[in-house]
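[audit] Reproducing an earlier prediction to check determinism. Same input, same settings, fresh worker. If the tokens differ from the archived copy the diff job will pick it up downstream; this log only records the rerun itself.
[audit] input (120 residues):
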Amino acid sequence: MSDIISVKSGVKVVEVNDLGETISLPLGDQAFTHGLVELMQMFSDKAGEVAQACKNIEISGNAAAKAEQLSSAASLNLKVCTEMKDRVDALFCDEVCRKVFGDIVPSMTAFSDFFDQLAP
């Protein structure tokens, strides 16, 4: 007769949409936990960058300059949100963003809401 060792994996499964799709949070995997903490820190840093770019848009003055600043801020926002989408999907090793947000590039607000809901 052989001995059996059984250890709980610490995987939490969460339903994320009306279709009943789920994502898995391997909370027992310390590499995942570390990656999630790093991702949330990156999100905070990048949100600050985008906020600063928006603050730099001149309230008054040259319309062409304002349009250029707005375009630059929008481009930065899209770049950051696309990077966040890629990093979230890579960390979870699943189509988390599609399941949670649909077929879009989620906004910073949407990522903030997602991270808030992941908190214990």
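[audit] rerun output stored. Observation attached for the diff report: The chain is about 60% helix and 10% strand.
[audit] end
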